[in-house]
Design goal:
The structure is a homodimer. Chain A folds into two domains: 144 residues, Jelly Rolls (Sandwich); 73 residues, Winged helix-like DNA-binding domain superfamily/Winged helix DNA-binding domain (Arc Repressor Mutant, subunit A). Chain A is 43% helix and 23% strand. Chain A contains eight helices and eleven strands. In chain A, the strands form three sheets. A four-stranded antiparallel sheet of chain A has the order 1-8-3-6. A four-stranded antiparallel sheet of chain A has the order 2-7-4-5. In chain A, strand 10 and strand 11 form a beta hairpin. Chain A is elongated. The first copy, chain A, starts with 5 loop residues before the first helix and ends with a helix.
Chain lengths: 224, 224
């Protein structure tokens, strides 16, 4: 979908067939194309009712933030995904809030909360779509929670490195220990210690530029 | 609601007004009154599609179980609550499973999965209700996760003891360290050590019969 085509976006919504012409017009009026720069803060904290974000290109990340500023990544959304929790203010069953940042430069469509609220209140199919999308994220969060609570640290780190290399299509990962710690819900010190252990085992090598995976089979074995 | 009155139960469902007479009849045929003894396993593991459980009296508890058998309590349901995750097999957006036990002797109505599946597939209002209920549980789980991940251990234990005393209306808690560890998502050893610390501070006293809260103000201060 080309960037900026709000009308086309609305026509292709999964619930478009359940919308009246009036509802479509209101939705088009309440939707705009937006871009977020890599690292930009999208939702959470002061912006408590951003609206529904549809990722057209790029990647956004949802996370929790403690009072002390510790982050836990809950899930990532990619091209074609809808972010509903950024419109959680209009869904009374959602009593928590998450933070959402752009993880890559991101093109998106943003449906304003006011427009989406009107729709969900009057059209059960739209409300259904919103709830359904949130339940999918619930599944993601449960998976993350399982990882954090039950997986031993070495396994968590191995899974992360292995997945990251597969995703980037490269054995060289330009990422800081601090970033890894955030992604896997641990502390930087713990990650650094474990990486040193992996390096001693010749599974990875460490340099200022990042982490190079030296033995993919050994790494894979650790993920089992 | 008196135990066993399936017809009345169906008439009083939040979505009853959206059901046809035929749907009501099918639902009555697919619902039965059940009782669960305290500690009885209701759902999870082998029973992977129990159905929708409505708690008429008592309390049921949902938890996660790791491969090593460690438990994390996700939420509890009381009189008037619906348990949807015990029918998760019929909701494709739910890709995880939880374990559910009776925490007290419990009277319930059980809507069979087959009957509920037919309804959700054909009636958007019923599907909406199911999704809405699950999103509420998502909120509970996020709260639990926040507790587990971000709250220091002494605070978690203090919050648990304080809430438990308030719930029971008594300063004497007949509960094992093992049970507390499960509730707050920790290990028995950690709980025992922390309780000993609380006892040394004259916040609680420990005996074979359980835990007595000796200084409620001190305990309360720890929860802040």
């Amino acid at each position: 979908m080309a960037f900026g085509e709000v009308g086309k976006f609305v026509e292709e919504l999964p619930f478009a067939g359940r919308l009246s012409e009036r509802e479509k017009d209101d939705l088009i009026a309440g939707t705009k194309a937006v871009t977020y720069a890599k690292g930009e803060h999208i939702h959470g904290g002061n912006e408590n009712c951003t609206g529904v974000v549809f990722v057209n290109k790029g990647c956004i990340r949802a996370y929790m933030l403690s009072e002390e500023g510790r982050e836990i990544t809950l899930y990532r959304l990619y091209e074609g995904d809808f972010c509903m929790l950024s419109a959680s203010c209009i869904l009374e069953a959602v009593t928590f809030d998450v933070f959402i940042d752009a993880e890559e430069d991101t093109d998106a469509f943003l449906i304003k909360s006011s427009a989406f609220r009107q729709l969900t209140e009057n059209n059960v199919y739209v409300e259904n779509f919103a709830l359904h999308t949130i339940v999918e994220r619930f599944s993601d969060v449960m998976w993350t929670m399982q990882q954090i609570l039950f997986m031993s640290m070495d396994k968590r780190l191995a899974v992360f490195l292995y997945d990251e290399a597969a995703k980037k299509g490269s054995n060289i990962l330009k990422i800081t220990h601090e970033q890894i710690a955030r992604y896997i819900g641990s502390a930087r010190e713990v990650v650094s210690r474990m990486l040193k252990y992996f390096a001693n085992e010749n599974i990875v090598s460490l340099s200022r530029n990042g982490i190079t995976i030296e033995d993919k089979n050994k790494l894979l074995a650790l993920t089992k």
